[in-house]
């Protein structure tokens, strides 16, 4: 299963959960501000429109009905959703006075939400989102009104400006909404909605084709209803598959946690150490800007980086003294054994297994099992390696006291460029600095006790030999 599919499913889980919940106070306030602004802008535009009588309320109602049908075809993409309302919106701009289209779009959104509200799948308070969701219609309407409502089909430049105004209005309204409820920044929001806007661009020519058809037959817009019916089937099938992926992803996470518990039951030092490495590794991964897929892989890999130790004989793992050369060779097989175990699980655990295999490689090529160096080592493995070493150094064990944070940081710095990736060390130090107010949470006093893999020369190696 592709990792991006899992992340898409996780986003769908959040989206589905929110739909059934009432708007919280911050969301309600944001919707009232954004939606209220839309209503003021749409009302001001409507005052500029000629009487609707020469168009016909029946035709306007048909466009509202088709727009509502379009909202039933919902595809969750990235951090947002897309519905094929563009197919209706484009001909609507030409069939009725442009100044009235924002209000008609809002009516279509509200009408499309009613079935879900009546069946309990959508909280009634979510109807407050209909005005805010309609901001995209303001920009194109303004463009056409400023052009005197002249027919734009023969003017590609006007159409392009209208499309740009659509995206600008939608983005700015969404940005205000998200910032009011503590959501993403402008850059983050742009990354989330870019795929949605690409879908709108792709649907715009279809909307133009419908607009051309309505030139000859004003009711031609109704022909899109069967299309929306077919698309709705695909939409629901995709949602069902995503829900299955959610369950599968939960199974993978459960498998990882069970394996972590097995490690802890077999060797409490190792199991608890892995959990300490998880927290630090995920923080570093986020600081380095890894996406959700890779952060999840870092989380699983940090939890399971020593899972292969359960295949190492306990008399070697628990040996109190120095290991001989043959015993050390057996210990170094634990990363290969860990990968083998995760390959058996399959799915995304295969990629986690590759990270686990490389979690004891060194930046200078002196690690094991493959002697990889530099960027030949997966970034996720480089993160786990550095965080593993830091957690091991700052942990108090039965046979030695953990290093102070300052000493451990000095060791990380001195081994940057040899054992550790310099960029990872820099990110780790940044995370530690940000957490300095509560540094004991990652220091020797409260970090869960751990024991490093024994080296052949010493029972307590410094970072250059931390396994």
How many structural domains can be distinguished in the coordinates? Answer: 2
Instruction: Estimate the helix proportion, in percent.
Output: 55-70%
Percentage of residues in DSSP E strands: under 5%
Label the structural class: mainly alpha
Major β-sheet profile: 2 strands, antiparallel
Helical region count? 19
Main β-sheet, spatial strand arrangement: 1-2
**Second rung of CATH, namely the architecture of the largest domain:** Orthogonal Bundle
First-last Cα distance: 31 Å
| Fold-level CATH name of the largest domain | Arp2/3 complex 21 kDa subunit ARPC3
Shape descriptor: elongated
How much is the average pLDDT?
Answer: 80
Contiguous low-pLDDT stretches (5 residues minimum) are 1-8, 266-271, 437-467
The CATH class designation of the largest domain is Mainly Alpha
Structure description:
This protein has 467 residues and is mainly alpha-helical. The chain has a two-stranded antiparallel sheet with strand order 1-2. The two termini are 31 Å apart. Residues 1-8, 266-271 and 437-467 have low confidence and may be disordered. The protein folds into two domains: 3-244, Arp2/3 complex 21 kDa subunit ARPC3 (Orthogonal Bundle); 267-465, Orthogonal Bundle (Hypothetical protein af1432). Helix 3 (57-71) crosses helix 5 and helix 12 packs across helix 16 (349-357). The protein has helices at 3-19, 25-46, 57-71, 86-95, 101-118, 129-133, 138-146, 156-180, 186-216, 224-266, 268-287, 292-304, 314-317, 325-331, 334-345, 349-357, 379-393, 405-414, 422-434; strands at 75-77, 80-82. 64% of the residues lie in helices and 1% in strands.
């Amino acid at each position: 299963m592709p990792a991006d599919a899992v992340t898409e499913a996780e986003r769908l889980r959040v989206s589905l959960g929110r739909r059934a919940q009432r708007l919280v106070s911050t969301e309600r306030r944001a919707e009232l501000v954004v939606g209220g602004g839309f209503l003021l802008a749409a009302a001001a535009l409507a005052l500029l429109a000629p009487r609707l009588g020469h168009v016909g309320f029946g035709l306007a109602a048909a466009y509202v009905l088709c727009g509502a049908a379009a909202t039933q075809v919902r595809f969750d993409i990235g951090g947002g959703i897309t519905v094929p309302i563009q197919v209706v919106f484009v001909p609507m701009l030409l069939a009725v006075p442009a100044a009235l289209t924002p209000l008609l779009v809002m009516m279509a959104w509200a009408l499309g939400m009613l079935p879900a509200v009546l069946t309990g799948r959508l909280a009634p308070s979510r109807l407050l989102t209909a005005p805010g969701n309609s901001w995209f219609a303001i920009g194109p309407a303004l463009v056409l009104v400023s052009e005197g409502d002249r027919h734009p089909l023969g003017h590609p430049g006007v159409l392009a400006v209208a499309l740009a105004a659509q995206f600008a209005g939608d983005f700015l309204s969404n940005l205000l909404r998200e910032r009011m409820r503590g959501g993403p920044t402008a850059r983050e929001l742009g990354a989330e909605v870019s795929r949605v806007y690409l879908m709108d661009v792709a649907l715009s020519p279809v909307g133009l084709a419908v607009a051309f058809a309505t030139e000859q037959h004003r009711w031609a817009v109704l022909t899109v209803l069967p299309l929306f019916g077919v698309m709705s089937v695909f939409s629901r099938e995709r949602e069902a598959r995503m829900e299955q992926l959610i369950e599968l992803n939960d199974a993978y996470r459960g498998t990882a946690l069970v394996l972590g518990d097995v490690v802890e039951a077999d060797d409490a030092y190792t199991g608890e150490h892995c959990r300490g490495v998880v927290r630090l590794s995920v923080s570093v991964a986020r600081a380095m800007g890894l996406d959700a897929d890779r952060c999840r892989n870092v989380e699983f890999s940090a939890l399971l980086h020593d899972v292969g130790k359960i295949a190492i004989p306990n008399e070697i793992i628990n040996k109190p003294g120095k290991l001989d050369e043959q015993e050390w060779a057996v210990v170094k097989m634990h990363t290969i054994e860990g990968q083998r175990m995760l390959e058996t699980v399959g799915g995304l655990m295969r990629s986690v297994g590759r990270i686990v295999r490389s979690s004891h490689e060194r930046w200078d090529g002196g690690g094991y099992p493959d002697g990889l160096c530099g960027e030949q080592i997966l970034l996720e493995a480089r993160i786990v390696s550095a965080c593993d070493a830091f957690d091991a150094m700052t942990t108090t064990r039965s046979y030695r006291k953990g290093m102070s944070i300052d000493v451990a940081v000095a060791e990380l710095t001195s081994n940057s460029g040899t054992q550790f990736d310099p960029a990872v060390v820099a990110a780790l130090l940044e995370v530690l600095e940000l957490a300095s107010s509560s540094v004991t949470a990652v220091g020797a006093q409260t970090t869960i006790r751990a024991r490093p893999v024994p080296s052949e020369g010493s029972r307590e190696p410094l970072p250059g030999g931390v396994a």
